[in-house]
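W.,

You were right to be curious about this one. When I first looked at the sequence I had no strong expectations either way, so I just let the prediction run and decided to look at it fresh. Below is the sequence, 121 residues in total, followed by the output.
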Amino acid sequence: VQLQASGGGLVQPGGSLRLSCAASGSTFRSYWIYWVRQGPGKERELVAGISGGGSTYYTTSVKGRFTLSRDNAKATSYLQMSILQPEDTAVYYCAADRSGFTTNPNRYEYWGQGTQVTVSS
């Protein structure tokens, strides 16, 4: 499967952005979709994940601020990010994997190209 992430940009603290991850292929529902970010000088961090049936996972730092959803008919996942803070600044990647939920990004099978999110006044 091929993934295309989009929607990044520059936003002020407290603002919102919506990232999209569009996938090719007809088996989108069989994949967990993950959003992983890497900030400047930081390790890769799993932000959120969603199963084909809509079960979600969020890392603690984004709970209550980020919402992950998917539209299987459109083969697209959406990461709605609100109350953004400077520490959310990172390149955000979407990834897909069929082998069940894992918090280890090294095990994700497919990756998109990343989209830059910068939170700054």
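Here's what jumped out at me. The chain is about 0% helix and 45% strand. And, maybe more interesting for your project: The first strand starts at residue 3 and ends at 6.

Coffee later to discuss?

I.
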